[in-house]
Amino acid sequence: MQPPRRTIPIVRVWRRSIGAIVSGVREDPDFRSLTLVAASLLISGTVFYMVAEGWSFVDAFYFSTIILTTIGLGEEPGSDLAKLFTAVYALVGIGVLIAFGTAFAQRLVEVSQAEQELEQDR
Length: 122
What we know:
Blueprint: H1 9-27, H2 29-53, H3 57-68, H4 80-121
Helix pairs in contact: 1-2, 1-4, 2-3, 2-4
């Protein structure tokens, strides 16, 4: 019998999380589609703010992220077009991100249960 592996807890969490996403994308067409939509939403927001506001990639990506995660931080785009886009982007994007988060959490639970079953069988 081998002694249990000791890893730093945060490393274990990240490894399990990345594993859940990778296996979900490989095995579950619905999860794959949701991941693609969430990534596309983040990319499209980033590109829009780069073009419409003239922001750098980092600033546009940062703003897209804080909008989709509802953090907000009181920042706002300058043009009316960008403000209208942001309103629609937030309404659509927050729902998509919630759906992705829910699917990810379900996937993570499945992976954790499978790992526990493997350890019990050993």
